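FW: tagging you since you asked about this chain on Friday. Here's the raw sequence from the shared folder, copied in full. Didn't touch anything.
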Amino acid sequence: MSRNTPEVPESERQLDQLKWEVAEELNLDDDIEEKGFANMTTREVGQIGGNMVKKMITFAEKEMAEQGADVID
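HL: got it, structure written out here
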């Protein structure tokens, strides 16, 4: 059983899309297409994962800021 299953199964497509977006920004998309994720180095995969987390935190902070006024009232 994989520990890397999303809490919300419907989000899997969006997470894959984000993974490719981040890989492209890091210029790793060609390497992934050539070698596949299974053959990437730990450093490369870590860069992708770390940047995905940064983007998700930024998104969550933005959402909370927008909804924050509604929660307080």
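FW: Residues 57 and 63 are 10 Å apart (CA to CA).
HL: agreed, and The mean pLDDT is 88.
FW: great, closing this out.
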